[in-house]
Amino acid sequence: MLLVPCPFISQKFIFAQTMTLISKTAKESFTVMNELILPNDTNTLHNLMGGRLLHWMDIAAAISAQKHCNRIVVTASVDNVSFQHPIKLGDVVTIEAKVSRAFTTSVEVRLDVWAENIPSGARQKSNEAYYTFVAVDQSGNTIPVPELKPETEEEQVLFDGALRRRQLRLILGGKMKPDEATELKALFFPEKQN
Q1: For the residues 65-77, what does the mean pLDDT come to?
Q2: How confident is residue 141, by pLDDT bands cut at 50, 70 and 90?
Q3: In a domain, 193, yes or no
Q4: What are the distances in angstroms from CA 167 to CA 120, 121, 131, 150, 191?
Q5: Sign of dihedral through CA atoms 40, 55, 98, 128?
Q6: β-pair partners for 136
Q7: Residue % of the chain over a pLDDT of 70
Q8: What is the 3-state secondary structure (H, E, C) of the chain?
């Protein structure tokens, strides 16, 4: 679709109108990023520095979010990132990212990180995490994002869990009171069955 500027209609109106018609799937945002671990990426034990990995994860997640939104996105939050296995000098890191849910102006991106030793053929999962991005216009104002339509059972599970993860992020960030987190409360205080 090609949008041509019209002096009688604001660009925000045109964009808002087109955004309501769009829904996307997770596979449309799927992003794979590979990096070879070189000496300047490692600590004194020849393991990949955590900060370097977080930087690469942020880039991969931002690309995924931009694919979904077709707009500029900014990082809003990073969930807990636990390092399950060290990534060694000479390994290849593969970061897979895809949008797991879209909210009004933000998207949650799921990342899986793999470390591969190509000579031996050994491949193991190193990390997983969720990053949240907010879509903004050229002036930095938040803008609506397309909704996400899960297609697979795995995507539906990630989609369903995203609201609980979002509520937890908002509580921890001081932007939501625990009493308002209905999805989280349902986990701990399910309605009594008669």
Answers
A1: 96
A2: very high
A3: no
A4: 42, 40, 14, 20, 19
A5: positive
A6: 72, 142
A7: 88
A8: CCCCCCCCCCHHHHHHHHHCCCEECHHHCCEEEEEECCHHHECCCCEECHHHHHHHHHHHHHHHHHHHHCCEEEEEEECCCCCCCCCECCCEEEEEEEEEEECCCEEEEEEEEEEEECCCCEEEEEEEEEEEEEEECCCCCECCCCEECCCCHHHHHHHHHHHHHHHHHHHHCCCCCHHHCHHHHHHHCCCCCC
Domain hosting 105: range is 22-149
- In 3D, which of 97, 87, 89 has the Cα closest to residue 124? 87
Residue 174 falls within a domain, yes or no?
A: no
Give me the amino acid identity at 54.
L
